[in-house]
Amino acid sequence: MDHRFRHEIIGKDLFRLLKETLGANFNCFVSEKLSVVSGDISQQNLGLKDSILMDEIHNQIDVIVNVAATTNFNERYDVALGINTLGVKNVLNFAQECNKLMMLLHVSTAYVCGEGEGLISEDPHHMGMSLNGVPGLDIEKEMKLVKQKLNQLQLEGATQHEIKLAMKDLGMERATLYGWPNTYVFTKAMGEMLFTTSKRNISIVIIRPTIITSTYKEPFSGWIEGVRTIDSIAVAYGTGTLPCFIGDMKGVTDVIPGDMVVNAMLAAITAHANQHSDDITIYHVGSSVSNPVTLHNICKSAFRYFTAKPWINRDGKPVKVKKLIMLNNLATFRIYMFICYLLPLMVLNLVNKVFYKNFQEVYTNSSRKIHAIIRMAELYKPYGFFNGIFDNMNTVKLLAAARQGMDPEEMGLFNFDPKVIDWDDYFINIHFPGVVKSAFKS
Fold first, then answer.
1. Active-site hit among 168, 188, 199, 381
2. Which of 161-165, 241-245, 354-358 has the lowest mean pLDDT?
3. Measured distance CA(126)–CA(294) in Å, rounded
4. Sequence-ordered list of residues with C-beta below 8 angstroms from that of 419, at least 6 positions apart, any chain
C-alpha cells in the first residue's frame, strides 16, 4: 500500500513543484498531512478490517470526498456496479458513523444525463427514473441480475475471458435498455440516485464535471494522467491511425481543465462545510455555457499542432497528418470504412491465404487498427453528436461567493471560470503537448 502511494501518487510529476519548493522537507510534510489506509469502496465499511482504526476515523473525519470510480465506458457490469453504484451506498453508510462529519462531496459526471438535449439543469436523479421512460429500474434487481448471470456462467464452465465479455455486454444492454449510452454513465447515475433516498441528514454536494482535460495552470500547465476519453482520439490522430471519425463539427464539445474541477471542489467544501441542508446541491463544472468550444475548433487545433510538431513513430520518422475527415452519422462512417479499409483488408486476407500467410503480420496489424477505429467511433458516438449544454447557474453562484473577500492573487489561485481560457492557445500550447507527453509515459 505504501509502495503504491509513493510511486503511483506522490511519485508522479504532479508533485514536482511541491518537491522543488520543500526540498528535503517534502516527505516530512506529506507524512504530517496524509494518512494512507487500505480499503475497498465496493465493500461494507469500505473494506476496513481494523475496528480501532475505523473508530478513530469515525471520530475524526470532518469532510468526505468520494472520487472513487471506474471511468471505463465499457467496463464489466459487475465491476462498475460495485464501484460506481454500490460504492456510493457504502460511503453513505460509512458517513452515518462519522460523528464530526460536516459534509460529503461526491464527484460524478455531467453525462449522467445520457444523450440529453438543450439546456441540462443541475437537478438530481431520482430513484428508478430512467432516461427513456422505461419502467422497472431497480438497483437491487440489477445487483441480483449480475449475481445470477455470474452463477450461470460459472455453472456453464465459462472461461474468465468469456465471463469478462459477458459482463461487458450485460452492462451495455442494461444501460441502453434504460436510455444511457454506456455502462459508465449508467452506473454513475444509479449512484446519484442512492443519494436521494439514503442521505439521512448529511449535507451532500455533487460535482458533475464534463470532459476533464489537462491542467490549465496548477500546479503547472498541461499535466494529465494517462490517455483517456477524447485524448485517445487525439493520440490516434497524431499517430496517423485515425483517418476519419464521426461527429457534429458545429456541435459544442464541453471540456474543462482538471485544476478548475479541483478548485470548484475546494470552493464547494468551503461553502457547504457548515451548512446542514435537506437538499442535495449539484454543480455542473464545464464550459458549454460560459465559453463554448466546437468540435470543429478542436479538430483545427489538433491539425495545427500535429502539423507543427509531428508525432515521431517507432522508426524515428515524423508522422504527417491530414485534416481529419468527419462524417455526420454512424451509417456513413461504416460505409466509408468498408469501402476504404475493410474491403482492401478482405483483399489482403485473400492474398495472404494464397501466398501461404506471408503477409500475416501486415494483415493482423491492419485488422487490429481498423477494428479499433470502428470500436472507438461506436463508443464515442454519443459524445460526438451530443446536443446539450450544461446549465451552470449553481457553479456561477459558487464562484461569485468564493471570490468575496479575495484579493486578485487569491482569485487566480482558486479560479474555475472557463471564460479566461483561449481555447486555441490552450489546445495547441497546453493540452496536446501534455497528452503527447503522457502518451509516451504510458
1. 188
2. 354-358
3. 31
4. 290, 291
